[in-house]
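Q: What residues go here?
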């Protein structure tokens, strides 16, 4: 690990409510508002619930693993730094560039989606104008200050949370016939092949959908580097977010499955490009609420902008951290007086803009770029679980006691092992049909991010002659900057 480059440090400006809402908002989006209907259709009500509960538990283990490391060493690079520090510098290099690339591409995907959503109201208006406007807004928010980013994410996430509460209330009233005109009850849970449809393969297919729905929870690790008090805010955010995710997703699926039978073509056609067939929209309409589609369209627009905003923040901090550690040009480690890594932000912005331009002028290039970032989130989760497993083993092997850690992950080593296994299952199960038919094009499009990470890993390993760090040589000490900050705070109090 290289020394600090002296370019300045990001400022700790995120409050506890910011961290909680960023983590919560990161995993509540179109995965819940739109594609959850497809999960119910594929596996039935029972199968969807089993898949989301299992994936939710795995994400909880993942977040507690990340939380243990983040409270010990809160850095903006988060899990890329941990991979380098606790496993192998080559893995940190691969994880960092992999994650930065993923979010830079995802920002472009999200701003393209903004244009699709806006066509609901203004179908004849040039779509690229809305995308550029969204990209400009996101740049402005991120370049002001970390507090501006935190406040923006707080309020946009709050809109999503309020929408879910209203949806659940309306849904329950509809189920009991108080709204919508007639009693529905739970008969759709046993309709035809329900509650379990397509057996184990159906549940496994929903694992993939649920996994993508929960992407973004790892943002809590990146925000730890700029949280005012990560030892308190990170554990609090982890526990709050877990229970909220489980309640929101599970209750929402129960309501949707009770009101809309799994055989409905509305669920079959759920896609991020058509808000009119969002299961949330359908439930509101069946409850007799006028303008449901417009309301949900506004919420989904907020959700997409929020996702792009978080993506710009995450990728910028990852590039800044890699520059700080020597894995990227050191110029990207420079920080403004406001504590913003402006050059890292602009570099990410350029990549997002170029990717967006390919969606207009070169659809095939755009498709390959998106495909290359498809499994990045699951690869990052795998890296987090592996890093934590080695961190804890190294911590104990070197004679440390668990009481020295400010936060303890749940069920070690079961937690990270379950996370590792499920990540492998989800990554391998993305498109089993492509292997069955031996469709090389589909396989390449679906799994492209896997060989890219392997190439990054071995390229760095060969060039720099790195090795997997022996457990007794792993540096498990907290970061010096953070230790100094704790001492200053203690002396003040």
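A:
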């Amino acid at each position: 690990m290289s020394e600090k480059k002296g370019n300045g440090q990001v400022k700790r400006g995120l409050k506890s409510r910011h961290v909680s809402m960023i983590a919560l908002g990161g995993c509540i989006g179109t995965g819940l508002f739109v594609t959850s209907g497809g999960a119910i259709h594929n596996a039935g009500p029972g199968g969807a619930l089993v898949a989301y509960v299992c994936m939710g538990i795995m994400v909880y283990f993942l977040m507690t693993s990340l939380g243990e490391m983040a409270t010990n060493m809160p850095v903006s690079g988060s899990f890329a730094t941990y991979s380098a520090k606790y496993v192998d510098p080559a893995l940190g290099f691969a994880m960092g560039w992999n994650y930065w690339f993923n979010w830079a591409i995802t920002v472009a995907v999200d701003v393209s989606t903004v244009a699709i959503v806006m066509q609901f109201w203004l179908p004849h208006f040039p779509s690229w104008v809305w995308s550029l406007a969204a990209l400009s807004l996101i740049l402005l928010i991120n370049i002001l200050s970390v507090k501006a980013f935190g406040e923006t994410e707080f309020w946009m996430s709050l809109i999503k949370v309020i929408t879910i509460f209203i949806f659940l209330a309306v849904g329950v009233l509809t189920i009991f016939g108080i709204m919508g005109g007639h009693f529905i009850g739970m008969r759709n849970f046993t309709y035809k092949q329900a509650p379990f449809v397509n057996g184990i393969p159906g549940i496994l297919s929903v694992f993939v959908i649920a996994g993508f729905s929960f992407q973004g929870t790892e943002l809590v690790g990146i925000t730890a580097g700029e949280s005012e008090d990560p030892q308190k805010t990170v554990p609090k955010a982890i526990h709050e977010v877990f229970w909220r995710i489980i309640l929101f997703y599970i209750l929402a699926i129960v309501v949707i499955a009770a009101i809309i039978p799994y055989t409905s073509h509305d669920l079959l056609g759920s896609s991020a490009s058509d808000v009119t067939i969002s299961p949330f929209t359908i439930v509101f309409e069946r409850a007799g609420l006028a303008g449901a589609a417009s309301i949900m369209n506004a919420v989904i627009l907020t959700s997409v902008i929020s996702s792009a905003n978080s993506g710009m923040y995450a990728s910028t901090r990852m590039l800044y951290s890699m520059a700080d550690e020597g894995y990227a040009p050191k110029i990207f480690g420079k920080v403004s007086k406001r504590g913003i890594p402006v050059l890292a932000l602009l570099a990410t912005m350029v990549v997002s803009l170029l990717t967006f331009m390919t969606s207009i002028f070169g659809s095939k290039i755009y498709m390959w770029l998106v495909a290359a970032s498809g499994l990045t989130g699951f690869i990052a989760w795998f890296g987090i679980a592996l890093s934590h497993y080695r961190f804890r083993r190294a911590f104990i092997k070197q004679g440390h006691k668990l009481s020295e850690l400010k936060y303890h992950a749940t069920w070690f080593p079961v937690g990270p092992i379950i996370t590792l296994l499920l990540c492998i299952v989800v990554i391998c199960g993305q498109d089993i049909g492509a292997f069955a038919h031996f469709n090389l094009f589909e396989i390449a499009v679906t799994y492209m991010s896997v060989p890219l990470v392997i190439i990054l890993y071995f390229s760095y390993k060969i060039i720099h002659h790195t090795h997997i760090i022996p457990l007794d040589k792993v540096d498990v000490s907290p970061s010096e900057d953070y230790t100094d900050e704790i001492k200053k705070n203690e002396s003040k109090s």
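A: Context that may help when evaluating the design: The chain has one domain: 16-475. The first helix runs from residue 16 to 26.
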